[in-house]
Amino acid sequence: MSERNDQEMSKQQAWLAFFVETNAEVRARRISEYSYTAAAIAAFGALAWGVASLGNKYCLFGPVVAAVVAILVLLAAVLWKILDEHKKHYMYRKESVRLAKLLAESHSIDLTELPIDFRKEPEPGTGHLWSALVLKVGGLGAAVFCISIGFSNKITLICGIISVLLIYASNKWMKYRDKKLKSENTSTTTQSS
Fold first, then answer.
1. Closest CA to 97 of 77, 80, 122, 67
2. Residue 187 pLDDT
3. Can you tell me whether residue 124 is helix, strand or coil?
4. What is the mean pLDDT of residues 132-138?
5. Count of CB atoms within 10 A of residue 32's CB?
6. Contacts for 96 with CB less than 8 Å, ≥ 6 apart
7. Strand, helix or coil at 49?
8. CA 107 to chain centre
C-alpha cells in the first residue's frame, strides 16, 4: 500500500513540476514580443538615420533601395516571429489550464477554488496586434522616410498610401487569424468533451 501511495505522490509531483514549467513558459512567451518590437523599431530608426546622413552627397538610389528592402525583410521576419510566439503562448496557456484542472481533480480541489485564469478556457488575446501595429507603422514609416530622401514627392505619396493600405489589410488578416485560432479552440474543446 505504501509503495502505491509513493507512486501516486511522485506522479502528482511530476504533474506539479510540469505545471510550474508550463506557466514559466507562458510568461516567457508573453514578454518576448516586446523585445522583438523594441529591437526592430531601433533597427528601423538606424536604417533611416543612415540614409538621411548621406544627404545629397551621393547618388541615393542604391542606399535607399537597400534600406527599404532591409526594413521590409526585418518587418516581415519580426511580424512572423510575433505571430508564432503568440500562437505558442496561447497553446501553452491552454495546456496550463488543462494541467491545473487535472491537478485540482487529483487533489480533490473544487475548480472554483482555482484562480479564474485556470478555471476558464483561454482565448487568444489582442496584445500582439498592438505590437504588430507599432511595428508596421514604424517599419513602413521608416521605409517611406527613406524613399522621401531619394525620390520625388509623387513616389513618396504613392508609397505612403500603399503603406497605409498594407497596414489596414494586415490588421484585418491578423484579426481573421485570431478568429480562426479561437474557432479551432472551440472545436477542439467540443471534441474533447
1. 122
2. 63
3. coil
4. 85
5. 16
6. 19, 22, 23, 26, 118
7. helix
8. 35
- Summarize pLDDT for 41-73 with one digit per residue, the tens: 888 888 888 887 876 666 777 888 888 899 999
Cβ(140)–Cβ(166) below 8 Å: yes
97 and 118 Cβ atoms separated by less than 8 Å = yes
CA nearest 96: which of 127, 118, 123, 111? Answer: 118
Would you state the pLDDT for residue 66? 87
Output the CA–CA distances (angstroms, integers) from residue 28 to 24, 33, 45, 150, in the order listed: 6, 10, 27, 41
Q: Would you say 174 and 136 are in contact if contact means Cβ atoms under 8 Å apart? A: no
pLDDT, residue 103, reads 78
Q: Is the pTM of this model over 0.85?
A: no
Short-list 77, 83, 66, CA closest to 29? 83
Q: How many residues does the chain have?
A: 193
As given in the structure block, the three cell numbers for residue 75 are: 518587418
* Cα dihedral: 65, 155, 132, 187 (round 10): -110
pLDDT surpassing 60 at residue 180: yes
